[in-house]
Amino acid sequence: MTLTAARGPLGRDPAGWFSTPLPPGLVFVEPHPRRVQAVLDSQVVIDTERALLVHRVGRPLAYAFPADVVGALPNEAEPEAPGFVSVPWDAVDAWIEEGRQLVHYPPNPYHRVDCRPTKRRLRGEVADVTLVDTDDTIILFETSLESKLYVSKEHVRTDLLRPSEKTTYCNYKGVASYWNAVVDGAVVDDVAWSYEDALPESSLIQGYLSFDPARVDVSADLPEI
Q1: Residue 133 contacts residue 162 (beta carbons within 8 Å)
Q2: How many CB atoms lie within 10 A of CB 68?
Q3: pLDDT of residue 63
Q4: Fewer CB near the terminus (10 Å): N or C of the chain?
């Protein structure tokens, strides 16, 4: 993601512009000198520091490997990098980069998560009941994505929240736990999420809550894109 996703420079709706329009179908390939490993049936089947990163518009970031390191794994030649091949993400049980297990896609060197304490106000209501109303917030800037406000649980009507079964994973923030709201006996699913064990680069929002504007009537003092 990042270069090619959302409003990144190679995305379908870039936030900025190039002085000269880029040709359609442009692909960016670069060396990625980090240790990348793939594990299948408890065995390491790829172990290399010679991977490439392949950025394609509208597609997740992908690895390409020297053909001689993938063994018998299914693979496909990478047309933009002769001698290199791609391996389907689900062809192995786990991908690991420099000791961190990955989910969905490789981490992007151009992706940044920046958490800043701020006084931007966040207000959220469900069924006319206020869940949060505070300016003691942390704003999270994430490359090419909309910024979001996070708040400490001490500012939230946590008596109205119940843990949800839903979880998601971000390679930059960690595992997100979700929360349902229960107001006057009615349940609104997944109104908020939190990173209870955030990755180091996102440690300032650990245990804090952010609210889904599609499920909560949210008023947030956020920068205009």
Answers
A1: no
A2: 10
A3: 97
A4: C
- What is the 3-class SS of 98-163, one letter each residue? CCEEECCCCCCCCCCEEEEEECCCEEEEECCEEEEEECCEEEEEECCCCCEEEECHHHECHHHEEE
CA distance linking residue 47 with residue 130, whole number of Å: 52
Burial class (CB in 10 A: 0-12, 13-18, 19+), 151: buried
Instruction: Return the closest-CA partner of residue 47 out of 29, 23, 73, 22.
Output: 73
* Mean pLDDT for back-to-back runs of 10 residues, the chain (225 residues): 74 85 88 97 97 90 96 96 97 96 90 95 96 98 92 98 96 95 94 97 97 96 83
- Smallest CA-to-CA distance from 126 within 216, 7, 33 is with 216
Bridge partners of residue 138, in order along the sequence:
117, 150
Domain 113-220 = CATH 2.170.150.40: yes
Q: How many CB atoms lie within 10 A of CB 19?
A: 4
Look at residues 74, 66, 75 and name the one whose alpha carbon lies nearest to residue 47: 66
Phi and psi based region of residue 158 (left: phi greater than 0; alpha: psi -120 to 50; beta: remaining):
alpha
> Domain extents for the chain?
27-102, 113-220
* Nearest by Cα to 191 from 199, 200, 201, 182: 182
pTM of the model: 0.83
**Interacting residues of 94 by C-beta distance below 8 A, sequence separation 6+:** 38, 39, 101, 102
